Amino acid sequence: MLHSFNSARRLALAAILASVPVGPLMADLTQPEGPVILTVSGAIAQTNGDGAATFDLAMLEAMDPQSFETGTIWTEGTSTFTGVPLRRILEAVGAEGEVLTLRALNDYSVEMPSEAVDDNAPLIAYARDGAPLSRRDRGPLWVIYPYDSDAAYRNDTIYTRSVWQLDRIEVGG
């Protein structure tokens, strides 16, 4: 009797799981073929090895990049930044946490509530004015906001979250 109950329970669970839709961004992540420039770890549902999701530049470029023009307090004039909205990356890995820790190559880090991420900002930029961001130019990845488009993006909190040389995001809490 107990055996048949467990079998029925397993079949019911399998039917429920089979009916859960999986969106296009939740497809299996491919393996990076080039150098890894971003690692996302923590409370994520999709990984491509060792409990983390790793991305090379080609993988990010394939994620429907966006561009906007803005000035920054760190550069002269305006530039066109191209990259992937952070929200899109979080959706691709199935992020489930409330706090993001953004960490740079030099171990600078800042925490950011996941609710502060909107559809278009911040952008995880990999190019400026059509050229890849080098380490010397705050790359290979830079957390950029459209600072010129809204005064809400011009404050110390946002500037602190504008991590350059970003290489890791940990999803927690």
Model description:
The chain has 173 residues and is of the alpha+beta class. The chain has a single domain, classed as Oxidoreductase, molybdopterin-binding domain (Sulfite Oxidase, Chain A, domain 2, Alpha-Beta Complex). It has four helices and ten strands; from the N terminus they run αββαββαβββββαβ. It has helices spanning 2-19, 57-61, 86-92, 156-161; strands at residues 36-42, 52-56, 66-71, 78-85, 99-104, 109-113, 123-128, 131-132, 142-144, 166-172. Strand 3 and strand 4 form a beta hairpin. It starts with a helix and ends with a strand.
Characteristic key phrases:
single chain, OxRdtase_Mopterin-bd_dom, Sulfite Oxidase, Chain A, domain 2, alpha+beta, 4 helices, five-stranded mixed beta sheet, disordered N terminus, five-stranded antiparallel beta sheet, Oxidoreductase molybdopterin-binding domain-containing protein, OxRdtase_Mopterin-bd_sf, signal, globular
Strand-and-helix sequence, N→C?
HEEHEEHEEEEEHE
Averaged pLDDT, please? 87
Rg estimate, integer Å = 19 Å
Percent helix among the residues?
A: 10-25%
CATH homolog superfamily: Oxidoreductase, molybdopterin-binding domain
Strand order of the largest sheet: 2-1-10-5-6
Second CATH tier, the architecture: Alpha-Beta Complex
How many distinct beta strands?
A: 10
C-alpha termini separation? 41 Å
Largest beta sheet, briefly?
A: 5 strands, mixed
Q: Class, according to the CATH hierarchy?
A: Alpha Beta
**Coarse structural class:** alpha+beta
Q: Kindly report the CATH topology.
A: Sulfite Oxidase, Chain A, domain 2
Tell me the number of helical segments per DSSP (H or I, 4 or more residues long).
4
Amount of beta strand: 25-35%
